[in-house]
Amino acid sequence: MTHSEFRYAHHPEDVKKYSTQELREHFLIPELFRKDEINLTYSMYDRFIAGGAFPVSKPVKLETIDDLKSENFLDRRELGIINVGATGKVTVDGESYELKHKEALYVGRGNKEVIFEKSGDGQPYFYLNSAPAHHAYPTKKVGKEDAEVVELGDSKYANKRVLNKLIVNSIVETCQLQMGMTELVEGNIWNTMPPHTHERRMEVYFYFDLEEGQTISHYMGQPDETRHIFMKNHQAVISPEWSIHAGAGTSNYTFIWGMAGENLDYGDMDKVSVNELK
Predict the structure, then answer these.
(1) pLDDT tens digits, residue range 60-90?
(2) What's the rounded Cα separation, in Å, for the pair 235 and 132?
(3) Any idea where the domains of the chain sit in the sequence?
(4) 223 touches 278 (CB < 8 A)
(5) Which residues line the annotated binding site for Zn(2+)?
(6) Lowest mean pLDDT among 109-123, 149-163, 224-238, 255-269
(7) Which helix (H) or strand (E) holds 77?
(8) d(Cα 164, Cα 149) in Å, to the nearest integer?
(9) Tens digit of each residue's pLDDT (9 = 90 or more) over 95-112
């Protein structure tokens, strides 16, 4: 079964007036993994879809949703998958790909059938991002050894981290979807410092590897009008193109960033000095 919900886009002047609960209702994705289901959130920010596939007792198939008005989910879309659990299997139009922990798979436009399943005793958690596509690029698996790895930050500022570029244009051809994974080094809590916006692209953050009982405060909003959303493990948050996207946890964690929009230039950022935030 494929379940979905729809989210509208928002003007930043309106968001300034939102209560805590309204912020959470519009931007937080609180539950991605439901037993034996695929759970999706369709956002009007660049028509981006984020969700999770969770095959516990049986395989689950990616079905089209009403909002797409298409016979198959990928008729006009591309799909990025990162497994954040135990080893699992993804079958795309009859061809199977084994995804280990923190491995990725890009699935191009035009594929008809995508099936997720377990491949052992462990439980896979398949995190999904999808964006509209104008061209059909080949399906390609991206292991951690294939990633572009960049070390960032400094323990002095509690933001030492390892960035793994997985589904990016230098590794796999895509139309507009870009995905990667950033791992905070133990003892570090801050991600994406200095914060930034990029009006050419929107973004979704998915947080995992967070210790039980800990939390992450995700910061959003315009640089001079910031807001925060407290988040738990296995939750995601939508970041509009006008919003910063940064966070701090009460312990270290890992997060997946997924982007879509005007260009594929990872370095296209409008950075904001930390002492200029309000």
Answers:
(1) 999 999 999 999 999 999 999 999 999 999 9
(2) 23
(3) 2-276
(4) yes
(5) 196, 198, 203, 245
(6) 255-269
(7) strand 77-83
(8) 5
(9) 999 999 999 999 999 999
**Residue 68, phi then psi, degrees to nearest 5:** -85, -25
Q: Which CATH class is domain 2-276?
A: mainly beta
Of 50, 51, 49, 48, the closest CA to residue 33 belongs to 51
Length of the chain: 278
Q: Exposed, middle or buried: residue 57 (CB in 10 Å: 0-12, 13-18, 19+)?
A: exposed
Please, what is the Cα angle at 171 between 174 and 29, to 5 degrees?
60
From CA 123, how far away is CA 135, in angstroms rounded? Answer: 33
Separation between Cα atoms, residue 242 and residue 196, nearest integer Å: 9
Question: The whole model's pTM is what?
Answer: 0.96
Give residue for tokens 């947080």.
207
SS3 153: coil
- Tokens representing 200 are 């050419």
Q: What residues are designated binding site?
A: 196, 198, 203, 245
